Request: fold
Amino acid sequence: MQLVQIYQCLCDETRLRLLNLLLRGPLCVCHFQTVLSEPQVKISKHLGYLRTRGLVTATRRGNWMIYDLPAAAARSPELAANLACLQDCAAEQSIFRRDLARLTKLDLACGPVAGVSAKNDDGCGCDQPAKILKK
Amino acid sequence: MQLVQIYQCLCDETRLRLLNLLLRGPLCVCHFQTVLSEPQVKISKHLGYLRTRGLVTATRRGNWMIYDLPAAAARSPELAANLACLQDCAAEQSIFRRDLARLTKLDLACGPVAGVSAKNDDGCGCDQPAKILKK
DNA sequence: AAGCTATATTCCTTGCTTGGAATATAGTTC
DNA sequence: GAACTATATTCCAAGCAAGGAATATAGCTT
Reply:
């Protein structure tokens, strides 16, 4: 992957916020919506943008799409370096810290879950919890 | 400085090439032109873009404008981190390596110079050598 | 199958970025 | 001061990206 393309993915604030959350672990779209407080189209489009450029992966799980960063082994040196850099930098800017805090709160409310068919009414805004188990 | 703004500066290939060269030391516009083989407007505009956003500094020296990165002490943590990251990444991509090689060749042809009023006919494409002495 | 949920896509508008041609500016040399 | 050099700016056209409204799609539930 070309270096410029990585930076093109990073040059939008919404995308930075999405990636910052993904650095903590995989997530489904509805939880991005909740944490960022942004409309569904916006989130979905930016995730699509990142996906077509290989910065995130997406796997369907029932109704939900689980987005994740590419596996460490699958990251180019450039991508790995820039994700590490982003993580460091984001830790110092309030907007990213706030997002992570909100995500943590969501996690606590929802708790981890393995399956997909159980409903829960945890008030997350969707019927499925935030904490997605890594395969 | 906001992190996004840094990435916005980095998301254009021409600007990446300029910054990559600047990581080696200060340079005047005409040498960017020579190394990148791009028209003057293009170089000048991208340098202007970087300048207004604080990613480079510019000082006039006779007819020449010397561009440089902000002094290490003046760099925000985010900028410092990303410049370091860029330097690492650029070292692995051929276009940036080629640029550095061309710059080195220019240096050899021109040699270091302190003053500004002496002409030389070193074939650099302008009357002033490439190697600018740090103040 | 019908209705529901989560997510994606299309269409459209708006604004930004890029690049080039032409021109302007600042400084030098003669 | 006239000519010249290096660089910046203006004006314009084209392309791209972002956001929203409406709609489509995929999978679940009953």
User: Anything to note?
Assistant: Chain A has one domain: 3-110. Residues 28-30, 40-41, 43-45, 47-48, 60, 62-65, 126-128 of chain A lie near DNA strand C (CB under 10 Å from a C1'). The longest strand of chain A covers residues 57-61. The radius of gyration of chain A is 14 Å.
